[in-house]
Amino acid sequence: MEIIKKYPNSFQWLFLLIVFFGLCFGIDVPEGYKYIRSIAEYSKDPNLSSYNLFGIEVRYYAYDTLWRLPPLLGWLPIWVNDSLFFLLNDWMPIEFWNADIKEFQTRPLILQITRVISATMLFLIEFIREILIGGIKTVVAFTSWDWIDANPWAELPGIPWTIVTAGAFILGYKLNGKGLAIFSAITMIYISVFGQWKPSMETLSFVLVAAPISFLLGLVLGIWAYRSKRVEGALNPILNVMQTMPHYSYLVPIMVIFGVGDHAGAIATIIFATPPMVRLTLLGLRKVSPDVVHAGKMSGCNDFQLLFKVLIPTARTDILIGVNQVIMQCLAMAVIASFIGAKGLGWNLLLALNQLRIGLALEAGICITLIAVLLDKMSLAWAHKQTDYFANLSFFERHRYGIFFVGAVVVGLIFASVGSFYFKEGFNYLYEVPHNKGISGEPFWNAGVDWIWDTFFQTLKIFNTWLIQDVLQPMRAAFLRMPVVATFVLVMGTGYIVGGIRSALVVGGFTLFIALSPWWDRALVTAYMATFGVIASGIIGIIVGSLAAQNKTSTKIVLGICDTLQTFPSFVYLIPVMMLFGVTDTSVLIAVIVYATIPATRYTIEGLRSVPPALHDAASMSGVTPMQRLLKIQFPLAFPHIMLGINQTVVFALFMVIIGAFIGTEDLGQYILKALSDVKGGGKGLILGLCVAFIGLAVDNLIRTWANKRKKLLGLEDY
Amino acid sequence: MFLENNLKKFKETPESFRQMFGLVGLTVIIILSFMMLNVFFGADDKSAEGSKTEDNNETVVASLPKGRLNFFEGNEGYKLSASEYEAVCKNTRIVVQRAMIGANITDYEAKKLYFDNGNKIDKFSVKWDDSTNKCFAEYIIRALQGTTETITVSGEAKGFLKTSIDTRVYFIKNF
């Protein structure tokens, strides 16, 4: 008894593990059970059991419920679909004026609203796209095709690439000096000479529409949440789910509601990019000192003035970092949105990957990455830039950047005109380098891939076979061999030990939702892949982070690398691994490891560096060696923070596992991908997305509760 | 009184013991809840027996060649024996479009509705009839909008197609 009193936690864990393994070994795999049975949707099998709910029949293979629960939530995706269908086709028909046929037409309200939203989004995207690369649709929207035939001069010309490059150079210089200016110019020149100008501008037009809308939505919601606790309470769980749901799962219901095309991609992007803006707005406003607020009130500000003249300007930096996050999320979605028809670099990358043209995919991938890094650096520089207040400046000094830009426009136009004389036949390269007419690195990259395969084929094959046969397959079998009751005991028991009954019920609720869905087996496969990725990333991240945290220079270098890698859209990680390992599970897992190592490394460094210097001094005075200091002082104190990094690693790993479905995994992601090509896939996509989100949220709850408890215990709440 | 005393005793127990009791209690509740669910949703003997038969059928089907499998004298494909025919039928879930179009040829109304509604099929099923020792395939064509009209087409499934993953009905005789 005394020993239980002395080590209560160890005994609880021991008990939990004994029960878990006891259940795993005690419950046999039912006869006739096959992992992930494929059931044709409309087929009937006499061996299937069924139940009826709300008139929806759900058929399933019944097993011992200790082994697998019946899919009692099987009706949910069908119900979501039916509801969507009803809303879009039958609910509240209204009359509206159709200008094209000059007649009143009847259409359900929701369908009309979605069509108006779609048309507005499409108009905005087209408008910006035509400013960047030319066109006539916007002019036609305000006039007519007859008018444009009569006045061909009115066709919008695109902006020559030289002007955009000069503009980016000047903007880069204004925001952060010559370093950013040179990088901006190199990026633009790369994009144009490699013939990626048109798709890049298409992507940029998409970002330029989605980002401001996300910014405004996020700002309004953030302010609303700041002013009302109730709104914050309601928004929090929604934001949690939105931020842990994989990108793919947004696409399916959006495709059902808004159709396919650039507008649908932009809407999906807006939904994905808004949550970080809401959170950062709220964080920024919360950080405003009460003294500042009091000073504003004492100066006689009304609510409106207090918000726009005091709170928002004071929280400017955090809000602008929100803008940075919005832009990054928009670019991360650029490739994924192309699954529902968004044009641009993402579309080209997807096509190239589909055709296994790795060199071409790499070119498009580099372009997206360069644009992402450039916009990241620019928006961060904007966020941290202080406004210059100088009096008595001359007109030139006040407007020098604008004047330089006007000069650049004039020079660019002259160049483009000269080009039209010089390149009499073919294309005017001083105006725009057409797609597929620029320099192409594809043969070089393809030769590189061939060389890698020729040189390392045997080594890669041996590694691949070893990893799949000796590590991945046994691990997957172990996960699938877990009876559902054992999983519940393990998950809820862990919740209980970590955070008491409340935590146990929360994680139990999340797990129950997945267990009652028709995709428990798939969820186990997702969990196994994410677990493998998290373990490997965690080990690598903690080791690299610990080594890097030892001095300031290495810390700066590694954090810089993490910053840069974090700006890469997640899809880009698949390209190099496909080059090395082909289309296999190994590729997905290596991509998961690379992608998920970033937060593990970053948080380890930040955790170790946040240990108070006074403790370092105290340790040195006590005569400890550097290794003892790391293991006995720094690690225990930094561990809660490192665990928050592992929490992020789990989310990153889940995202990448789902994206990996593109290569051909067998997990929830594969079903989400299939739902994209299914007419009735909206409900499925949404529920599958929730399943992934709930895996992430369950782990998040456990780790966050543990880390907070541990921090409290160590007296580190302020760190 | 007895309850109160015990509650008091429990409250006086050290925190570590109470937590351990809580964990044990939670574990027992979880296991019992799952056992109770078994009463309503668990597998019965019939379905377990069904699964066994299904396994046998799958073994028979696995031994057959890929491509067309016929239960009639044909120029192409493999001729099924009576036992193989039964195994293939019981193992088949899907009716391919070719079989539907073929069966629709002799049913004008079905053919019209099938093309009018964009080739949408509501439900299909494949059943083995023990009394006649025949395999029957059935599908329901439903109009997309406007009416609740449905047409059920059924017939004897006499031809199948074996792919690398499953078997499908390839020919329905409904004349």
Q: Mind explaining what this structure looks like?
A:
- The complex is a heterodimer of chains A (719) and B (175).
- The longest helix of chain A has 39 residues, at 442-480.
- Chain A has a domain at 446-481 and 517-714: MetI-like (MetI-like fold, Orthogonal Bundle).
- The model of chain A is unreliable at 37-42 (pLDDT under 50).
- Chain A is mainly alpha-helical and 719 residues long.
- Chain A is 75% helix and 3% strand.
- Chain B has helices at residues 2-12, 15-41, 45-62, 82-91, 97-104, 108-116; strands at 67-70, 78-79, 94-95, 121-129, 134-142, 150-162, 167-173.
- In chain B, strands 1, 2, 3, 4, 5, 6 and 7 form a seven-stranded mixed β-sheet that branches.
- In chain B, 47% of the residues lie in helices and 26% in strands.
- By secondary structure, chain B is α/β, with parallel strands linked by helices.
- In chain B, α3 (45-62) packs across α4 (82-91).
- Chain B folds into two domains: 2-41; 66-173, no CATH class.
- Chains A and B meet through α2 and α21 of A and α2, α3 and β4 of B.
Q: Can you lay out the helices and strands and say which pair or pack?
A:
The complex is a heterodimer of chains A (719) and B (175).
Chain A: H1 2-6, H2 8-26, E1 49-53, E2 56-60, H3 75-89, E3 93-98, E4 103-108, H4 109-133, H5 137-142, H6 145-150, H7 161-176, H8 178-193, H9 197-227, H10 229-244, H11 247-258, H12 262-287, H13 290-298, H14 303-314, H15 316-337, H16 345-354, H17 358-384, H18 395-398, H19 400-422, H20 442-480, H21 484-516, H22 520-548, H23 552-567, H24 574-581, H25 585-609, H26 613-621, H27 626-659, H28 668-676, H29 681-714
Antiparallel strand pairs in A: 1-2, 3-4
Helix pairs in contact in A: 2-21, 3-29, 4-9, 4-12, 7-8, 7-19, 8-17, 9-10, 9-12, 9-15, 9-16, 10-29, 11-12, 11-28, 11-29, 12-15, 15-16, 15-17, 16-17, 17-20, 17-24, 20-22, 21-29, 22-25, 22-27, 23-25, 24-25, 25-27, 27-29, 28-29
Chain B: H1 2-12, H2 15-41, H3 45-62, E1 67-70, E2 78-79, H4 82-91, E3 94-95, H5 97-104, H6 108-116, E4 121-129, E5 134-142, E6 150-162, E7 167-173
Parallel strand pairs in B: 1-2, 3-7
Antiparallel strand pairs in B: 1-6, 4-5, 5-6, 6-7
Helix pairs in contact in B: 3-4
